[in-house]
Amino acid sequence: MKHLKWLGGLAAMALLLSKPQAAAQGAAGAMVMWYTSVAPALFPFLTLMPLLTCGEAVTAYEALLARPMGRCFNLPGAAAPGMMIGLVAGTPAGAMAARDIAARGGLNRGQLKRLAMATAGFSPAFLVGGIGAGMLNSPAMGWRLAGAQLLTQVSLLLLLKRCWGLHTMPVGVSASVIEERPIRGAMLGVLTICGYMMLFSALSSALGAWVGQAPAKILLCLLDVPSGALQVSRMALPESVKLPLLAGLCGFGGLCVIAQSLGVLKECGVEAWEYMGVRALAGVLCAAYVVFLQKLPLLGNLRLIEPIRMNPLAVGGFIGSNLAIPMLIRRIKTIPNNVNKRKN
Asked: By three-state DSSP, how is residue 138 classified?
């Protein structure tokens, strides 16, 4: 396996050096996409991650949501913050949250697998603001993509409800991997994502310079979805074809996003073939759901929300802050006990 990694690294280096101009253009395009859409959507959640996955948060969510989470998804209440971060922040923030909760003892290996693989995806702020408003010039189309992804994630949580039930052992990840300095951890997280996006986009652009423009676009979609989605949005295709294609790509996630998630989850026992299989199913479900949403009379023509353009940073900060409410409730409930202790 190590020899294959070395050979792959040498092949990638040779490819980049053979077409340096194309590789540089691909990397620059990916960096612009990261700067305008991806980083603002993820940074608030990565900053708030220690607050949302700390031991007190795990206890608070377990006490508040144990019953509904268990009945609906066969998950403990402690999984709630990880699930919400996965739903609203996407990958790899959701995978990191699930890993941190598991490292604190809130999830076993099977629960971590189901949670991380089912809730992977892209931030709704990116789907609406980045793809819908930015690429397609239609926030309504972005809202349909976000709705299709949400339906896909909930469907996967239900479909995988009984999977990996025998994997009850701890994840084997020490709590020392959790970043205790939130700003530093958030900056490292978003910069790591930038590096992944630039590398995969550079590789696909360099390879595309060898094989031609049409295959290059296909490679770009498979390797890096944000950059590939930009290419799809520029194609002269009808909406009925373009939107399901974008939904399928976003549901699958692309090898760049999959590599980011596996970089977090592989040490927790998640196998690459398992993760990619679930993501392939997610791509099919997401494309099917967006076709379904297009056919609904009410949702097929979203005039009322067409002008709404989501600011990724503002939306991420607002939702992330609200996820801390259960801990605030727990703190308020403990005030009388603390007062009595001080009196005694």
From this structure: coil
C-alpha–C-alpha distance, residues 108 and 79, integer Å:
10
Residue with tokens 């679930």: 278
Side chain identity, residue 269: G
Scan for tokens 């469907």, then name that residue.
155
d(CA 237, CA 220): 18
Residue type, 116: A
Closest listed residue to residue 186, CA positions, set 47, 39, 36: 47
Find the domain containing 175 and state its range: 39-184+240-337
Say if pTM beats, i.e. exceeds, 0.70. yes
Distance CA 147, CA 131 (A): 14
Give the model's confidence band at 300: pLDDT under 50 very low, under 70 low, under 90 confident, else very high.
very low
Domain tally, the chain = 1
When pLDDT is averaged across residues 329-337 and rounded to a whole number, the result is: 68
Q: Is residue 281 part of a domain?
A: yes
Cβ atoms within 10 A of the Cβ of 141, count? 26
182-240 tens-digit pLDDT? 677 778 888 888 888 888 888 878 877 777 666 767 777 788 787 788 888 888 888 88
Residue 282 resides in a domain: yes
Amino acid present at 251: G
Look at residue 343 and tell me if it is in a domain: no
Other beta carbons within 10 angstroms of residue 302's beta carbon come to 18
User: CA gyration radius for the chain?
Assistant: 21
pLDDT number for residue 277: 92
Average pLDDT over residues 324-336: 70
Looking at residue 97, its amino acid is A
Return the axis-axis angle of helices 80-89 and 139-159, rounded to nearest 10°.
Answer: 150
Q: What is the pLDDT of residues 109-158, one digit of tens each?
A: 888 989 989 988 888 878 887 888 888 888 888 888 989 999 999 999 99
Q: Is residue 180 part of a domain?
A: yes
Determine the Cα–Cα distance for residues 55 and 307; give it in Å rounded to an integer.
Answer: 41
CB count within 10 Å of CB 231 equals: 16
* Phi-psi region at 174: left, alpha or beta (left = phi > 0; alpha = psi -120 to 50): beta
